[in-house]
Structures are given as structure tokens and as C-alpha cells.
Amino acid sequence: MPGLIRKAGLRVTKPRLALLDALAAAGGPLSIEQLHGAVGAETCDLVTVYRCMGAFERSGVVARSYFHDGTTLFRLVREETDRFSYHVLSKTTNQVEALDEHSSAKIKQLVQQVEKSLRDQGFTDVGHIVEFFGTRT
Questions:
Q1: How many independent structural domains does the chain possess?
Q2: Residue 83: band (very low, low, confident or very high) from pLDDT cuts 50, 70, 90
Q3: Pairing of strands 72-76, 62-66
Q4: Residue 87 in contact with residue 97, Cβ under 8 Å?
Q5: Mean of the per-residue pLDDT values for the chain?
Q6: Structure letter (DSSP) for residue 100
Q7: Which of 9, 28, 44, 75 could anchor a disulfide with 48, C-beta 3.0 to 4.6 Å?
Q8: Structural domain span for residue 51
Q9: What is the CA radius of gyration of the chain?
Q10: What is the pLDDT of residues 41-67, one digit of tens each?
């Protein structure tokens, strides 16, 4: 994890290492509160979690997503292809499931086309958020 932090141009600190370790161990998106609980108040306070996640998001180390109730979640981005990893959030169980590979590939292709079009129109620092919510029957 120290290499990932350095590659992002950030200073390696105990709270940053602990937060990335917690995200890696979780295997899925976590909220700020879940991250804070996972690393413990003795490692860092809640404000530090918010600041670290903001820095990680700006540098591409984590990606943000949302629960249907507006809760912000963060997941570790392990490589560039993971940037285009899409999920569906269950409204009934609050579980996060990866979309199938075929659907993710289609969405990735469309998003890249839209992002290219926006850059061609003069936009810079183009990004996106695509979220899916559902209820299993």
C-alpha cells in the first residue's frame, strides 16, 4: 500500500495506510463511518478519514459510489480497468454486487464515448458516476 500512496503523489502516513488496508480487506465499498470503525479512533479521527478519502479520490486511488439513501461509499481502485467497475446496490439488503462482465463492458464503452465527446467540446478533467439500484424479488 505505501507504493500506491506514493504513486498517487501523497505522503505515506499511518492513517492513510490503515484506511487503504481496511478498504482492501473489505473487498467492497465502505462508508466513511464503516472505515472509521474499521481503523479505530486511536488510528485517526473522523475528520482525517474524510480528508484522506478526498485526497485518495482526487488522485484516483479510490472511487466514490452511493447507496440509494444517499450514503457515500468508497472502494479501492486497484488498476485503471477497475475505474470502470460497475455495481448494483440492493435497496433491501444494502449489499453491493458487481454487474456482469458483458454489461460493464457496454457501459464502459458508452462512458468512454461520452467522455471523449466532452473533451472534444473543450471540457477538461471529465469524470462520471454511474449507479444502479434495485430490489431483488
A1: 1
A2: low
A3: antiparallel
A4: yes
A5: 85
A6: P
A7: 44
A8: 2-134
A9: 16
A10: 999 999 999 999 999 998 889 888 776
Q: SS3 for 132?
A: strand
Residue with cell 486511488: 61
The confidence score (pLDDT) of residue 89 equals 78
Please give the model's pTM, rounded to 2 decimal places: 0.67
pLDDT at position 79 = 60
Q: Which helix (H) or strand (E) holds 90?
A: strand 87-90
Euclidean distance between CA atoms 86 and 80, whole angstroms: 13
Spatial neighbors of 32 by CB under 8 A, at least 6 apart, are 46, 49, 50, 53, 72, 74
Q: Which cell numbers hold the place of 17?
A: 495506510
Between CA 119 and CA 122 the distance in angstroms is 5
The C-alpha cell that represents 113 in the structure block: 464515448
CATH label of the domain that carries residue 36? 1.10.10.10
